[in-house]
Amino acid sequence: MKNKPKILISACLLGENCKYNGGNNADAISADTLDKLDQIYELVAVCPEYLGGLTTPREPAEICSNGRVMTKFSGRDVTREFLSGAQICADIARKNDCKIAVLKERSPSCGSGEIYDGSFTGRIVSGDGLTTSALKKLGVRVVGESALLELNLEKEAQNGQVDKH
Predict the structure, then answer these.
(1) Closest CA to 135 of 84, 97, 108, 101
(2) Closest listed residue to residue 96, CA positions, set 147, 134, 41
């Protein structure tokens, strides 16, 4: 398909080793789903933490109740780096006319609707990561990896190939 619409996608979901522990989240989506997504969209990979200046690997970080992003072991405030990465991703989305972003669920950057609570206990609360917030302000629809199949069906429905009802 020529001139496929572009979407942002978390680089870790594509197998890039940019996750805080040096690994990736490629196992979060099936290869078939990713292949189908790639057939319909041009994928623009981003890692907000890396783009914001953090290294890989890095200390785990979560958004705390005060809105600051803090690391687990040293208690370092990395909010500035997370905000910088969020702004860079928003700029990339704007420049590429991305209307959709598929981002890693529950992440302090990429979580949409649910994030970890800042206690590093695995407890989940309602909220968005900093990159997700920046993208939503631009009108970008942000979904987690569990909604990939839904995105494919939506695009096919727009082309008149699938009846969603």
Answers:
(1) 101
(2) 41
Residue 120 lies in a domain: no
Q: What residues contact residue 102 under an 8 Å CB cut-off, 6+ apart? A: 7, 8, 9, 10, 13, 37, 143, 144, 145, 147, 148, 151
Can you give the CATH number for the domain in which 32 is found?
3.40.50
Please state, as a whole number, how many other Cβ atoms lie within 10 Å of the Cβ of residue 141: 16
Contact call for residues 110 and 93 (beta carbons, < 8 A): no
| Paired residues of 146 in beta bridges | none
User: How many domains are there within the chain?
Assistant: 1
Query: pTM of the full predicted structure?
Result: 0.91
| Residue-wise pLDDT tens digits, 90-101 | 999 999 999 999
What residues make up the domain containing 47? 6-60+82-113+128-158
Is 20 contained in some domain? yes
CA distance 51 to 65: 24
Tens of pLDDT, residue by residue over 8-55, are 999 999 999 999 999 999 999 989 888 888 888 999 999 999 999 999
Structure tokens at 81: 């780096």
Tokens of 143: 């979904």
